[in-house]
Amino acid sequence: MSQLRTVLLTLATLAVLGAVAGFATVLFGLFNTSARTGHWAVTDWAMHTTFENAVALRAPPEEDVPDDLSDPALVELGARHYDSACAMCHATPGTSAGATIAAMVPPPPQIDQAVKPWSAAEMHWIVDAGVKMTGMPAWPAAGREDEVWAVVAFLTAVQHGMTPDDYAELTAPAAEGYCASCHGAGGTSRAPRLDILTPDYIADQLAAYRSGARPSGMMAHAAAKVPASGDAELAEAIARLEGPKQAAPNDPAAGEALAARGIAQIPACLTCHGPDNQNPRIPSLDGQGEAYLADQLALWRDGVRGGAERAPLMVAAAKGLSDADIAVLSAFFAAR
Asked: CA-to-CA distance for 318 and 266, rounded, in angstroms?
């Protein structure tokens, strides 16, 4: 019994001494936080091993990986966002980051190396969740799985051997400016057409992206490049952009009855978005991209999208839609 008491007393003493040492290290700045000294080898090992195991534990199941990650339009959307928001740290295929980035502790891995060990599901978790103590942020908008998968589509293309020339062609800026790179005639069909929207509506959405009322990691980043005072002028300009080329929609006839049908106290889609719409703050859907419409309807249904005056009505209208309903409604409006 006395031996057990001695052991417990020794352990308690060691615990107290460890706590005092840790407190003193924090209080008196004994730990050197300078990036110039780097980490001990054991610290690097512990952090990276913890990171790998955390990703393996939390990555979504493989069955949740979308089937369309090879869609060129999705790859382009992800590549253009990466080029604007991520390339500064991770560089581009076949290139290296600058000396300042290389001096970070730990340094961000070059993109060709960064994607090598991971599956698509694991890359999704890393992009979405970020990585503590590395400078890698979480995705700026919670719930935007569609945007994260677009970046993963690009990263998967890098895994498959994207060359520097491929990347340069994919991310070439449009002559009409930054916004036109995605939304102009040469942009990606996964981005919305703006030429069918009013300047009032576009300005409202820019403000909503900037404030976070309409969550979007991609558009929050883009909107931050323009001062709020410039929203009206920018909206006037980009409302005149010729939209990206869209693929021919799937069977549009199947969605007509659904678009004309109201549910209980919720009016039909065509009541607000039909040809008689005269409200400049309600978007026209006729001729909008099918894939984009499907993404937005899913966001409304799942309660993620906001930033509209009638957001509660749209959430209620979309709440009961199945994936099949969303597909036929998107095709119907895309074909009009």
From this structure: 10
Q: Terminus-to-terminus CA distance in the chain, angstroms?
A: 86
- Which of 272, 299, 298 is closest to 284 using CA atoms? 272
Yes or no: say if 104 and 35 are a contact pair by the CB < 8 Å rule: yes
Nearest to 209 by CA among 230, 190, 228, 233: 228
pLDDT tens per residue across all 336 residues of the chain = 678 888 888 888 999 998 998 888 888 888 888 888 888 899 889 999 999 999 999 999 999 999 999 999 999 999 999 999 999 999 999 999 999 999 998 999 999 999 999 999 999 999 999 999 898 999 999 999 999 999 999 999 999 999 999 999 999 999 999 999 999 999 998 999 999 999 999 999 999 999 999 999 999 999 998 898 989 999 999 999 998 888 778 888 888 888 988 776 788 999 999 888 889 999 999 999 999 999 999 999 998 988 777 678 888 888 889 999 999 999 999 998
* Cβ pair 230, 207 in contact under 8 A: no
**Tokens found for residue 306:** 């906001």
Q: Are 255 and 330 in contact (CB under 8 A)?
A: yes
HSE at residue 306, side-chain half, CA atoms within 13 A, is 14
Closest CA to 291 of 168, 146, 171: 146
- Hey, what are 134's tokens? 């590395």
